[in-house]
Design a protein that fits this description.
There is one protein chain. A 5-stranded antiparallel beta sheet has the order 1-5-7-6-4, sandwiched between helices. Strands 2-3 form a two-stranded antiparallel ribbon. A two-stranded antiparallel ribbon has the order 8-9. The chain has helices at residues 19-27, 66-76, 98-112, 158-178, 205-212, 218-285, and strands spanning 6-12, 30-32, 39-41, 48-54, 83-91, 120-125, 133-138, 141-143, 148-151. Helix 1 (19-27) packs antiparallel against helix 2 (66-76) and helix 3 (98-112) packs antiparallel against helix 4. The protein starts with 5 loop residues before the first strand and ends with a helix. The protein has a domain at 6-178: BirA Bifunctional Protein, domain 2 (2-Layer Sandwich). The mean pLDDT is 86. The chain is of the alpha+beta class. A hairpin with a 4-residue loop joins strand 8 and strand 9. Helix content is 46%, strand content 17%. InterPro entries: MobA_MobL. Belongs to the MobA/MobL family.
Length: 286
């Protein structure tokens, strides 16, 4: 079943992030941070399917290479607590092929980020297993003909975050419909949807691998407990519905019986009134 997940966060130096290192990890590649000389080598990472960079047409040529792009970000940012990138992580429908999911993500990025002037560095993970998802790293500065200009503070607005989350659900549903997959996702919380079910947690690659080996992971066990609790909750709700339905059927039956009795009583009263009028008429005729 297609699930909805769209989380948005910011990578900054204050929380120990490096845009070059983060990109290398998400791409499963080897990159050197030219500012620090640190080499980030994640080339043995096996869950990366493919990576790409998409950017506005007017972007300088270096922006199309992820190593050059994020090294330029590191060079541009001077503050020790600088915000380096925004990351959007989305769950991909496992009912779709990788080609279909690539089209979904690229269209979403073009419509919501690239069209506004951001560069999107995208990595697809685990599209051949049970947990397909994509990491989208976004630049935070305006583009100029030479490189990066000022930070765009409007991109940090809460209204943008809400819009991006909602638009991901719209994009997924549009793509599912296009590919004749009869499923839908919803960006709203289960509570806002009126669904009395506890949401499951994201299990993650490491936990999935443990479960495949027959080991019990903490997150996998937590999900099983949530599923069991939801089953009990559903059963309780179903029993309540059945009880209400039974009571309502009894009420309808009782009301029908009362209606029949009232109709019969009205018919008796009507006949009695008719006889009384006839008696009166006979009395006058005498």
């Amino acid at each position: 079943m297609a699930i909805y997940h769209c989380s948005i966060s910011v990578g900054s130096r204050s929380n120990g992030s490096s845009s070059v290192g983060s990109c290398a990890y998400r791409e499963g590649s080897k990159k050197e941070d030219l500012k620090t000389g640190i080499i980030h080598d994640y080339s043995r990472k096996i869950d990366v399917i493919e990576s790409c960079v998409i950017c506005p047409d007017h972007a300088p040529s270096f922006c199309r290479d992820s190593s050059q792009l994020w090294n330029e970000v590191e060079r541009t940012e001077k503050r020790k607590d600088a915000q380096l990138f925004r990351e959007v992580t989305v769950a991909l429908p496992k009912e779709q092929t990788q080609d279909q999911n690539r089209e979904l993500v690229l269209n979403y990025c073009h419509e919501n980020f690239v069209s506004k002037g951001m560069i999107a560095s995208i990595s697809f993970h685990e599209s051949k297993t049970e947990n397909p998802h994509a990491h989208i790293m976004l630049t935070m500065r305006e583009l100029t003909s030479d490189g990066f200009g000022q930070k765009n503070r409007e991109w940090n607005s809460k209204s943008n975050l809400r819009e991006w989350r909602e638009n991901w659900a719209i994009s997924v549903n549009r793509n599912l419909d296009k590919n004749n997959i009869n499923q839908k996702v919803d960006h709203r919380s289960l509570l806002d949807q009126g669904v009395l079910r506890t949401p499951q947690i994201h299990v993650g690659y490491a936990a999935l691998e443990m479960e495949k080996r027959g080991e019990i992971s903490e997150r996998g066990q937590k999900n099983r407990e949530i599923i069991q609790g939801n089953d009990v909750k559903s059963e309780t709700i179903e029993q309540g519905i059945q009880s209400i339905r039974h009571s309502f059927n009894n009420y309808k039956r009782e009301q029908a019986e009362i209606a029949v009795q009232e109709k019969a009583l009205m018919e008796v009263q009507k006949n009695q009134e008719k006889e009384n009028r006839q008696d009166v008429d006979r009395g006058f005729s005498l």
